Amino acid sequence: MLSENGAKMELEDFLKEITESDGVAGFEENVSGPIARAFAPYVDETRRDNLGNLIFYKKGKNAAAPRVMFCAHMDEIGLIVTGIEERGFLRFSTLGGFDARTLPGQEVTVYGKEKYPGVIGHLPPHLCKGEQKKKAPEIKDLFIDTGLPEDVVRAGIDVGAVVALRRNFVTLRHRCRAGKAFDDRAGVALLWQCARELSRMDHAADVFLVATVQEEVGTRGAVVSTFGLAPDLGVAVDVCHGDFPGAAEHEVSPLGKGPVITSGPNIHPCLFERLRAVAADYHLPCELDVSPGPTGTDARAIQVSREGIPAALLSVPLRYMHTSVELLDLDDLKTGGRLLAFFTTSLDRAFVEGLACF
Amino acid sequence: MFLKELSELPGVSGDEGRVREFIREKLSAWGIEHDCDTLGNLYAFKNGSKGAEGGLMLAAHMDEVGLMVSAIEKSGHLRFYKVGGIDEQILVSRPVRIGSNAIPGVIGAKAIHLQKKAEREKPLEVDKLYIDIGARDKDDAAKAVKIGDYVSFAAEAAALGGSFKGKALDNRAGCAALLEILQRDFPGSFVAVFTVQEEIGCRGAKVAAYRLNPRTALVVETTIAADLPEVREKDQVTVLGKGPAFTLQDDSVITHPRVLERLVTVAQERGIPYQFRGYTGNFTDGGAVSRARDGVPTGVISTPCRYLHGPASLICLEDWRNLMEVVDGFIRSVLAKGL
Questions:
Q1: Is residue B12 within 8 Å of residue B68, measured between CB atoms?
Q2: Residues B6, B19: contact at Cβ < 8 Å?
Q3: CATH number for the domain harbouring residue A101
Q4: Are A191 and A209 in contact (CB under 8 A)?
Q5: Which residues contact A152 (CB under 8 A, 6 or more apart)?
Q6: Facing residues of A57 across strands?
Q7: A303 with A192, same domain?
Q8: Do B235 and A122 touch (CB under 8 A)?
């Protein structure tokens, strides 16, 4: 795979390309192109289902071997225009969970008849008095300023126009990188790494790598992709909270110490154990986490699809989730991709049949 | 037009070196005599320094609001002070550049998922925020940054609709306007001063005005435009697109009536739209200059700017060009007939 400048595309280049692309929940088509192009050299077949999930098929060596699905969501949280006001200011609502305090001063792209850059405006400090100063802004207090006259705005942008945050990829120290939509394009990048690893390995199992849609508004893509593929098992690849100063230790995982394997009722105990065992066998660092209920990931949908599908969750620690400076360590992605590939080679029919033996 | 370059250069109060260097290179290339004082103010002597004292002084400040590294935590995260009146609301979810090597960092925020509702209803407190450069720990961070390093926004300047957005337009817009004007021919001499440390109390302008002891001064600034939804007309301060704003009064200066009258006359004669800054708060270099030595008749003219002090502040280029035309006319008028 060559990147635009002709050099061999690496994990970092891929992550940069797909996180500088826009794909708000329900409107993922802009990001699905670069994802499909990058996966193509490493998979046997690419298709798209009715909701827009991108499904990459990698054929196994043995037709009797298990069929497995690994998925990561390609949608990101975003905004949607709800009104156009006097002088062309846009009011908006959210697609996915935003902390309104992270929005003032952020730059955005409004998808109208064309792409319009804009800035999220708020009341200037000198006009905030008394009680207002003690209150955080709410979404209803904010607006988008395109710098365009009202008639141009009205001609080019309708209510319902989707808005994505703008943020260039930031290269930090060592292997740390920051940007927007790392939740969960980081997961997509991990899947891509897994595809590259698998292309150098013999694996019996048939593998479906899925970039799902609409996770941020309720894991909707995974609901239909799991139904459609009816795999023997599914692993959701998502992000979890990375450590930061002042965080409660049980809520976060350290960066750079490997991907995180989750256990709990949403996760089939044998899959959890197998992932741990594979990590140990191949000396891959990993961290453990627990989730006491259905996880906030595609694993939630996988587990209760059809007659029940064993689910697991592999996560990448990510700081500052749902801001435009989400931060991760590239090594965690690389390790996660390898772990998932070795996990694939460990699977056989007997293991899958044993998953119903409680 | 040097707006883009000037906007993107880091130059927090006390750390104006890169902006000064950029301007100095232009002045040298154009053969304009210039020098500096011990605070770092840059003086451009149009048509030579002879007789510069006691003449006309123009001023635009080079510095911008920003942050300064105050401590490095065990974890390698950086704590910071604010430098100047930065709007705390726009700090999170933000890339920054630190120190003379422009080390990239980000200001994150606790993920929404980990916050209780009551937490989200309160503004983020600046003393709870920190900068993350991806360091492994304190020692690792100390290899890249140090306490006292200045921090500015990493923000691209570009056209936005019919407007122009970027960081530090307060007051690189003023610097850019003076640079444009300095390239023109004038029938007499004046001094354009690119001042330091305006945002922390107009400290550069104070000594510059003392040194030059001008007879007349005009401060070229950038000011709040709050022509925003739900803001009543009387609270809007200025409106984008209605021309440069003349200050009547702020917390630091009352524009000298003869200067104000001259600005209005010039604008009217040239058919340039203008507005009055409808707010009496905040301070500018105008205050420091007007009180220098035995006093200087001083005025302040500004480009209106939405989201002032933010990483994506917004000006209307037509206002900025119109500001230049009024300043140009004012200089010619004062050179021709005094105040």
A1: yes
A2: yes
A3: 2.40.30.40
A4: yes
A5: A88, B161
A6: A45, A208
A7: yes
A8: no
Q: Name the average pLDDT for chain B.
A: 95
What is the Cα–Cα distance from A123 to B229, expressed in whole angstroms? 9
Which residues of chain B make contact with A174, given a CB cutoff of 8 A? 134-136
Residue B339 has, within 13 A of its CA and on its CB side, a CA count of 20
pLDDT, residue B176, reads: 98
Tokens at residue A232, please? 């023997």
For domain B66-153, the CATH class is mainly beta
Nearest CB to A245 within list B75, B113, B165: B75
Residue to mutate among A145, A151, A153, A322, with most B CBs inside 10 A, is A145
Q: Among 3.40.50.300, 3.30.70.2120, 3.40.630.10, 1.10.10.10, what is the CATH number of B3-64+167-337?
A: 3.40.630.10
Cβ pairs A/B, distance under 8 A:
194
Could you give phi then psi for residue B81, rounded to 5 degrees? -100, 160
Specify the length of chain A in residues.
358
d(CA A281, CA A263): 19
Mean pLDDT of chain A: 94
Question: Where is B89: in which H helix or E strand?
Answer: none
Predicted confidence at residue A7, as pLDDT, reads 57
Residue B121 confidence (pLDDT): 86
Q: Which pLDDT belongs to residue B60?
A: 98
CB A141 within 8 A of CB A91: no
What ipTM score was computed for the predicted complex, to two decimals? 0.91
Where does B154-273 show beta strands of DSSP type E? 158-160, 163-166, 190-195, 216-224, 245-246
**pTM reported for the whole predicted model:** 0.92
